Amino acid sequence: MRQVADTPSIWERPEPPQRRAPSPLSRERIVRAAVTLADAEGLDAVSLRKVAAELDAGPMRLYRYIGTKDELLDLMVDAVYAEIPPPAGSGWREVARSYAHGIRTAGLQHEWLADLLDGRPRFGPAAVTHAEATLTALRAAGLREIDTIMSTVEVLSTYLRGAVRTEVGERRAERASGLDEREWQHAMAPHLLAMFATGDYPMMSEAMHDAEHRDATERFELGLGYLLDGIEQSLSG
Amino acid sequence: MRQVADTPSIWERPEPPQRRAPSPLSRERIVRAAVTLADAEGLDAVSLRKVAAELDAGPMRLYRYIGTKDELLDLMVDAVYAEIPPPAGSGWREVARSYAHGIRTAGLQHEWLADLLDGRPRFGPAAVTHAEATLTALRAAGLREIDTIMSTVEVLSTYLRGAVRTEVGERRAERASGLDEREWQHAMAPHLLAMFATGDYPMMSEAMHDAEHRDATERFELGLGYLLDGIEQSLSG
DNA sequence: CTCCTCTCGATACACTGTATTGGCAATATA
DNA sequence: TATATTGCCAATACAGTGTATCGAGAGGAG
Questions:
Q1: Rounded to an integer, what distance in angstroms lies between the CA atom of residue B63 and that of residue B226?
Q2: What is the mean pLDDT of chain B?
Q3: Residue ranges of A 110-149 with Cβ closer than 8 A to chain B
Q4: Of B155, B177, B219, Cβ closest to residue A226
Q5: Which of A149, B19, B162, B221 sits at 20 to 30 Å (Cα–Cα) from A182?
């Protein structure tokens, strides 16, 4: 039980006061620079050297404000949470959809977010505030029991993580190859087509040629609908 | 439309023949070494230098067999697909569950997998075979239309990506802190408890104190059930 | 004005993926 | 068997990374 207690987490550690005037730095400025950089050039471009350069500072100067690069990443995630509007709506389904769309929008706007959202939530102040608002809205919209609310949110956010990651991955692949989905299916695949031509993969062939082609948003909504239907069913069951 | 055509992808490029005898190398041996290393020490430990060292070779020797590190990662993913048993079952729900459990098991066994499974599928031979088997089993189990089958698989795999990532993230966090979930909730959070003590976050407090505590498997099954229920409903609708 | 403390820049280290180069060993030819 | 040729592989090099360490210099206190 040490780590956590030894060095207080970034959320508890106060920002150091600044005594010197020139080119005032702050966590907020650092995080903003990092977010901007990540939006523009991807998460890999976020190196302490580059972020510092963006702020006309040496790399080591950042260590007055953040303890480690991972902390900077945590702060970036929380900064995004601060942008997401609190879920709203009258029925619980509406609230759930609002929650989902908020996360998805943020995830598509900041494509690096999905890479940083792994398991356990980071629980920065903005994330906590957003979570509180989500739970509150769900209860106000009709979900009474806390267990039901938590199940709903947990399942939703699991789906969301996967969906955003999938969509972002597709976008990246498109950009990397300069091809959109349809072109990709026909062009990427000398080897796929060759495989299919053997006749050993009839279902894959059929899927490729005959299946309806939904775009990313439609797929997202479809899955979201399934999930909400399933949850609703469990409510009345 | 260049990249793809210019240099054939790793799936098409044949393995080079070996002429010299001592310490014979092969893609398979390289990939196995990389997978073993990733399983044991995490994806970050998979550097070309370390993989090569594991095989008593210099780093540059690997470039006879793989074109780039990313290709090695692709091969690793495909190697995992080769381990996943083809989904089976009599009803489509059973098949879907089998599919889901196969992926989840693989993802938990190779914790790095979730990090490599982003958007578009990699379509290595094993992945294609597994996909074909999945689609075939679903049709045999009662799902006729290809659109239905594809929707089911897509939605499922989106949920799976999120779920595996979540679980893996939790495991990592546990290992990093030496705490399990419950301990974590009470220990990690001087600052969380402090926030909650203010009374500004009643829902979060309630969630933390009163909500039922499901383990990872239960949560996974719950969400999977919701999803399947939602899909089933759309079938009869 | 002097002393002390704190902050920041420079430097250094171990590590990454991979381009380049040159020597050596195995094979093909005479 | 002697020679020519091929092609693989190790060594080296480079531009990056996060961050530990250290020394200089500036701000505030007495």
A1: 46
A2: 89
A3: 114, 118-120, 123, 125, 128, 131-132, 135-136, 139, 146-147, 149
A4: B155
A5: B162
Interface contacts (A, B; CB < 8 Å): 223
Residue with the larger pLDDT of the pair B137 and B187: B137
Each residue's pLDDT tens digit, A210-221: 999 899 999 999
Chain D nucleotides close to protein (CB under 7 A) are 8-12, 16-21, 26-28
CA A60 to chain centre: 29
Q: Which of A2-16, A206-220, B46-60 has the lowest mean pLDDT?
A: A2-16
Contact call for residues A33 and A51 (beta carbons, < 8 A): yes
Nearest CA in chain A to B221: A155
Q: How far is the CA of B82 from the C1' of D4 (A)?
A: 46
Q: How far apart are CA B51 and CA B73, in angstroms?
A: 12
Name the residue range of residue A139's domain: 84-236
Site of tokens 């899955």? A223
* Least confident residue range of A14-28, A81-95, A108-122, B210-224: A14-28
**Across all strands, nucleotide nearest B65 (CA–C1'):** D8
For residue A22, give the 3-state DSSP assignment: coil
Q: How far is A61 from chain B (nearest CA, A)?
A: 27
Task: Record the pTM.
Answer: 0.92
Angle at CA of residue B171, ends A10 and A75, nearest 5°: 20
CB proximity A44 to B under 8 Å: no
Does the C-beta of A68 come within 7 A of strand D?
A: yes
Rounded Cα–Cα distance for residues B169 and B26 (Å): 33
Instruction: Please report the residues numbered 143 through 182 in chain B whose beta carbons come closer than 8 angstroms to any beta carbon of chain A.
Output: 146-147, 149-151, 154-155, 157-163, 165-173, 176-179
Judge if B76 and B132 occupy the same domain.
no
- Looking at chain B, how many residues does it have? 237
The torsion angle over the Cα atoms of residues A178, A182, A186 and A191, rounded to 10 degrees, is 80
CATH code of the domain containing A145: 1.10.357.10
Q: Which residue has the higher pLDDT, A25 or B40?
A: B40
The answer to whether residues A60 and A102 belong to one domain is no
pLDDT at A5 over 50: no
